[in-house]
Design brief:
Blueprint lengths: L1 E5 L7 E4 L23 H11 L3 E5 L5 H5 L6 E4 L4 E4 L2 E2 L2 E2 L2 E4 L2 E3 L5 H17 L3 E7 L6 H5 L16 H15 L4 E11 L2 E4 L3 H13 L4 E3 L5 E3 H8 L2 E15 L2 E13 L3 H7 L10 H27 L5 H128 L3 H161 L1 H184 L4 H19 L6 H6 L4 H8 L7 H14 L3 H14 L2 H8 L1 H5 L1
Parallel strand pairs: 2-3, 3-9, 10-16
Antiparallel strand pairs: 1-2, 1-3, 4-5, 5-8, 6-7, 11-12, 11-15, 13-14, 15-16
Helix pairs in contact: 3-5, 10-11, 10-12, 11-12, 12-15, 12-16, 13-15, 16-17, 17-18
This protein binds adenosine-5'-triphosphate (ATP).
The site of adenosine-5'-triphosphate has 13 residues, from helix 4.
Main location: cytoplasm
GO cellular component, one term: mitotic spindle
GO molecular function: ATP binding; microtubule binding; plus-end-directed microtubule motor activity
């Protein structure tokens, strides 16, 4: 037997038994897959099934007890591993074997369970996945087709027996799987027999009697088989020619997607074909003997489908019944439904208008979005431009800052110099004041000296003091210049420090501006990012709302289509029913008209006959004729009443049909209307939601744009304020410093000019004093020269004339010197005073003036030296002392000990 898993209308599969010279069993090496042989069949099955829709499997039954007893030779050898069947043949004592390949080979030891698990269970799984599959058994009579498909049905306490075939196992597997999945399902089973080109529903109880009757009527020929046995030839052929089709249709509720219910529908046909050798042998299909078995099977399947369609149509026809009392109600419901449909159409129109409005709103929002995007782009461009301007301004600001730094440095230096100069000018002024006081005191002293002394010695001391004062003044002037230099340096340092301070202030302002700019830029960027995010969000929301609207539209369209289809079906049904009613009415009218015609004809014939008879016997027949007419009319009216009753019944039946159809349509319409209403409510709700969300998002977007605009304006105003304030601060500081510098400069100039004037005045005074002292010195020198000449003459005279009176002269000289010394003795501790207190030459000369003229020659010589020596009083005494010691030892000696020589 071979089992073929063949394609059905949509897909698959088959089964076949026993090798025979059939097209199925031709070697097909292209179907073999060596690489997949070793692997598990069940695991590879799905992959193969994707490519191969028809599989041919072979099952070889074991030899029966009878065959074993008869020692029937084996003619077939199965190789399950290689999936090959070898037909053993010996021709002329030569072994000529033929090898056939199949998709799967089951040997004699294969059990029902393993065959089912390997070959049928995957197909049942695919049926439960929603595919249509067919398994049919094909082979010669007695090869085990029925055993394989049905098997032993003996039940062992609820479990399937080991010999149970494909059909009970498939049913059991389907129930087990669906119950395990706790699925919501329905299963329909038909068991049809195709017998003598007629279909019999084996599960329909009322048809059994007829088929049994039909079969009982069939002639059976009783024949001898030549071996002493009797064969029921006719019965055998007819029985083996029957095909059986066991169909399982499964509807499984898959899941709900929204309002829709998904239902999987799968169908499994398990076909047990008639013995393959009997079709040609029976003679019933002589014309088809040459037809290939594929064509035959196709024929059979088409016929099976046709029969199934007939059965379904018959069932549907018989199942539709509309009671009369529901007709009026359904009519009313129909009207209400029509109104409802109108209302729904109006609502649908309104919905469509609303959808159009939403679409326009969406388009306008898209346009607004585009505008916002363009504004954002403009804003970006402006921002970039302002950033560029800001960079330029920053560069200019940096240049200005560097210039300011330079100027500030110079200003700080100048300020420091000015301060130092002022300080130094003050010190110098003090110095000059003290110097002037000193000079004043000096002049006072000088005047005093001049007044007190009146000689060249006081003038010399005054000159020395003047020189020392001038030196001091020069020192003070140089120190003042030094201090001025220091003051200038200090001013320079002060200027640099001030400039550095200014620089630090400006740099801090610059950094503050930069920070402010950075913060502003980051804020602007964050606001731009916020705007972009909100735009993206808006896009997303618009996209979602559009999708939802589209879904809602699709849903409403679908429901509208369903409603219109249902309405169309309903009106078609009504048309059909109306046409049926019209047919019935026409039929009844034609029947009535026929009957009336017949009646008229009969009436005319009878009237003619009666008229003829009436001529013969008017009085006798007239009464009979009247009674007969009355009876005839009564009969006609009765028959008409019966016909009308039938018609009324038919009409009632048709009206009940219509009522049923309209109630069904009404229900469906109501359901669809509710569904449409629900969908519409959901759509409107989602649209309102999306509108609210879009409005809020747009509001947020506009708020963000306004905020960013305000931030930008704030930043710009802050930057400008900062620039202005920094510029004003810098300008004010610079002006202040410049004014301070100017004031300091003025002060410095005035102080320096005052000091200069004072110094010049002092210098002029000193110079005048010096000149005065010089002239005085010259005059005193001249006087002293004259006096020295006079003294020298007198000394020469004194030396020449009188040496004796030296003692007296010495004593007198001692006395004079002692007196002079006493007069000129210095009371102060200063050495100058001691110098000044040295006895002057005039006093000596005055003393000499009292001596005779003999001593004048030696005095003249000495007087020249004394006159010269007077110009340098400090040296003079010393030189005079030496001279007296070297040139006139007597004089020196006498000067040291005047009284000694004299005595
Ligand atoms: N694999 C098997 N193991 C044991 N017995 C089997 C096997 N296959 C078939 N048989 C037996 O062989 C006999 C014939 O089988 P079956 O009636 O199923 O053949 P068939 O092909 O259906 O014949 P037909 O075409 O006349 O219907 C039966 O008695 C059955 O029990």
């Amino acid at each position: 037997m071979s089992m073929s898993l063949t394609p059905d209308h949509f897909r698959k599969s088959g089964f076949g038994l026993v090798p025979s010279p059939a097209p199925f069993l031709t070697p097909r090496p292209e179907r073999r897959r060596p690489e997949s042989r070793s692997s598990d069949l069940s695991s590879n099955r799905q992959d193969r099934d994707k490519e191969v829709n028809v599989q041919v499997l072979l099952r070889c039954r074991p030899l029966s007890d009878e065959e074993q007893r008869a020692n029937v030779p084996r003619v077939i050898s199965c190789n399950e591993h290689r999936r090959e069947v070898t037909v053993l043949q010996s021709v002329a004592n030569k072994q000529v074997d033929r090898v056939f390949s199949f998709d799967k080979v089951f040997g004699p030891k294969a059990q029902q369970r393993s065959i089912y698990d390997q070959a049928i269970a995957p197909i049942v799984n695919e049926v439960l996945d929603g595919f249509n599959c067919t398994v049919f058994a094909y082979g010669q009579t007695g090869t085990g087709k029925t055993y394989t498909m049905e098997g032993g049905m003996r039940n062992k306490g609820g479990d399937l027996p080991a010999e149970a075939g494909v059909i009970p196992r498939a049913v059991r597997q389907i129930f087990d799987i669906l119950e395990a999945q706790n699925a919501d399902y329905s299963m329909k089973v038909t068991f049809l027999e195709l017998y003598n080109e007629e279909i019999t529903d084996l599960l329909a109880s009322e048809d059994n009697s007829r088929s049994i009757d039909d079969r009982q009527k069939r002639p059976v020929s009783l024949m001898e088989d030549g071996k002493g046995c009797v064969v029921l030839r006719g019965l055998e052929e007819e029985v083996v020619r029957s095909h059986s089709v066991f169909s399982i249709t499964v509807h499984i509720k898959e899941s709900n997607i929204g309002e829709e219910e998904l239902i999987k529908c799968g169908k499994l046909n398990l076909v047990d074909l008639a013995g393959s050798e009997n079709i040609s042998r029976s003679g019933a299909r002589e014309a088809n003997q040459k037809i290939s078995k594929t064509v035959l099977l196709k024929d059979l399947f088409l016929e099976i489908d046709r029969m199934k369609e007939d059965v379904r149509a018959a069932r549907e026809r018989n199942g539709v019944y509309v009671p009369h009392d529901r007709f009026a109600q359904e009519e009313a419901e129909k009207k209400a439904r029509a109104q409802k449909i109108e209302q729904l159409e109006i609502e649908l129109n309104l919905n469509e208008k609303e959808v159009d409005r939403f679409r326009e709103l969406y388009m306008s929002e898209q346009e607004e979005k585009l505008e916002v995007t363009s504004e954002l782009k403009d804003c970006k461009v402006n921002l970039e431009k302002s950033n560029k301007d800001l960079l330029d301004l920053r560069e200019q600001y940096r240049v200005a800052i560097s210039t300011l730094k330079e100027k500030e440095f110079i200003i700080s230096k100048l300020l420091y110099s000015e301060n130092s100069l002022v300080e130094r000018a003050k010190e110098l002024r003090n110095g000059l004041q003290s110097a002037s006081e000193d000079i004043t005191s000096l002049f006072t002293t000088l005047e005093f000296e001049v007044v007190a002394d009146g000689t060249g010695l006081g003038t010399c001391q005054a000159t020395k003091a003047l020189e020392s004062r001038i030196r001091k003044m020069a020192d003070a002037y140089s120190s003042g210049i030094e201090s001025l230099k220091e003051f200038a340096n200090a001013m320079k340092e002060n200027s640099s420090s001030d400039l550095e301070q200014l620089n630090a202030t400006i740099s801090s302002q610059v950094s503050a501006i930069e920070q402010l700019l950075a913060v502003t830029v980051s804020e602007a960027q964050s606001s731009i990012e916020d705007i972009q995010n909100s735009l993206r969000e808006q896009e997303h929301i618009l996209y979602i709302s559009t999708q939802q609207q589209e879904k809602g539209l699709e849903r409403s369209l679908r429901h509208t289509q369903v409603i219109s289809k249902a309405t169309m079906d309903f009106f078609d049904d009504i048309n059909v029913q109306a046409s049926k009613v019209m047919n019935v009415l026409e039929e009844s009218q034609t029947k009535q008209s026929d009957w009336l015609n017949n009646f008229h004809q009969t009436f005319q014939e009878q009237t003619a006959r009666e008229e003829k008879q009436a001529l013969e016997d008017i009085t006798k027949i007239l009464g009979n004729m009247t009674s007969r007419r009355t009876a005839h009319v009564m009969e006609a009216s009765r028959s008409m009443q019966g016909m009308r009753t039938d018609e009324h019944k038919k009409m009632q039946q048709e009206m009940s049909y219509i009522h049923q159809a309209s109630s069904d349509a009404n229900k469906e319409l109501r359901r669809h209307a509710e569904e449409v209403k629900r969908n519409f409510m959901a759509d409107s709700f989602s649209v309102a939601e999306s509108r609210v969300v879009m409005e809020t998002v747009l509001q947020e977007c506009s708020d963000k744009v306004n905020r960013s605009k305000e931030q930008l304006e704030n930043a710009q105003s802050k930057v400008s304020d900062l620039n202005r304030s920094s510029a004003l601060g810098v300008e004010a500081a610079v002006r202040e410093k410049i004014s301070i510098n100017n004031v300091a400069q003025q002060q410095f100039l005035s102080a320096s000019s005052a000091v200069d004037e004072e110094f010049c005045g002092r210098t002029v005074d000193v110079m005048a004093a010096v000149e005065d002292s010089l002239t005085r010195d010259q005059e005193s020198t001249k006087e002293m020269d004259a006096m020295a000449t006079l003294c020298m003459n007198q000394l020469k005279t004194i030396q020449e004339k009188h040496g004796e009176s030296i003692a007296s002269i010495r004593s007198k000289a001692d006395k004079c010197l002692t007196q002079d010394y006493e007069v000129d003795e210095d009371t102060s501790s200063r050495p100058e005073r001691r110098v000044i207190s040295v006895p002057s030459m005039s006093s000596i000369e005055k003393m000499r003036m009292s001596f005779p003229a003999a001593a004048n020659g030696s005095v003249e010589e000495e007087g020249e030296n004394v006159g010269h020596r007077l110009s340098s009083p400090s040296k003079w005494s010393h030189h005079h002392h030496q001279m007296t010691e070297s040139k006139n030892p007597q004089l020196v000696h006498s000067s040291r000990a005047p009284l000694g020589d004299v005595n």
